[in-house]
Amino acid sequence: MSKAIRHRLTGSTDIDESAVLTFPQGLPGFEAYRRWVLAGEEDSAIRWLLCADDEHIALPVTDPLLVDPDYAPHLPPDTLAAVGAAGPEEVVLLVVLILPRGGRPWRGTANLLAPLVIHPATRLGRQVVLNDDRYRILTPLLPEEEIARIEGGKP
Amino acid sequence: MLVLTRRKGESLVIGLGAGVEVTVLECGPAFVRLGIQAPRDIEVWRKEILAEITEANRTAAAVQREDAAGLEDFLRKAKKPG
């Protein structure tokens, strides 16, 4: 069953009820919201996790491997079980981005410490905090020299 | 706030039949190590980290669509050799 949801970021979007992802605990900061929809092209680097029940709430997300090609966190077995996964190969990881307001998106950060763990088949998700000191909440999206190169090329 | 004294190896139970149990595993001068048993749907967070992630999520959600403009190319270019 498909219905249109309105969202400030995407305008009116036709979504299938079956596309709704359920985060049974909500997300930290958005505990009351359990139903989310992933919007944006499948192959697009930046996608949007839209709150299905509040058109003002959306989080930009990306594939953590685009930020850190070696990203390979150990996922707690309880987290995997909570989303209905038998093993880490069954889940998809996305990380939440903080983008500066009004420009310079390359100065954004990704939350590699607390990825979203999503099971595509059960459509259950959970944001988990890793017990892993390799990863940070505010991880720069690009290395410093890359930022310098981008900004050096600007007037 | 309820205040209880527990020794190493002792536990406390939260709720009747809720399956939540906290055990003191180790005590140091400035820390205690706790073992927590809880049903899967009860998440356990370090409070200060939960606060940081709450803050990060709320900041992330203040985004406008145009704030991401161009980022896609930068991300892909930066990661592709050559």
How would you describe this protein?
The complex is a heterodimer of chains A (155) and B (82). Chain A has 155 residues and is mainly β. Helix content of chain A is 12%, strand content 32%. Chain A has one domain (2-152): BH3618-like (Roll), CATH 2.30.290. In chain A, the strands form 2 sheets. In chain A, strands 3, 4, 5, 6, 7, 8, 9, 10 and 11 form a 9-stranded antiparallel sheet that branches. In chain A, strand 5 and strand 6 (58-62) form a beta hairpin. Chain A is globular. Chain B is α+β, with helices and mostly antiparallel strands. Helix content of chain B is 28%, strand content 22%. Chain B is built from 2 helices and 3 strands; from the N terminus they run βββαα. Chain B has helices at residues 47-60, 71-79; strands at 11-14, 20-27, 32-37. Chain B starts with 10 loop residues before the first strand and ends with a helix. The chains are: A mainly beta (155), B alpha+beta (82). Chain A binds chain B through residues 9-10, 24-25, 27-30, 44-46, 57-60, 62, 66-67, 69, 78, 81-82, 96-103, 105-106, 108, 111, 113-114, 126-127, 129, 137-138, 141-143, 146, 150, and chain B through 40-41, 43, 45-46, 49-50, 52-65, 67-72, 74-76, 78-79.
Task: Please give a quick description of this structure.
The complex is a heterodimer of chains A (155) and B (82). Chain A has 155 residues and is mostly beta strands.
Number of strands of chain A: 11
Separation of the first and last Cα atoms of chain A:
51 Å
Q: Given the C-alpha coordinates, what overall shape of chain B results?
A: elongated
**C-alpha geometry of chain A:** globular
* Rg of chain B computed from alpha carbons, rounded to a whole number of angstroms: 22 Å
Q: Main traits of this protein?
A:
heterodimer, A: 155 residues, BH3618-like, 9-stranded antiparallel sheet, 12% helix, globular, B: 3-stranded antiparallel sheet, 2 helices
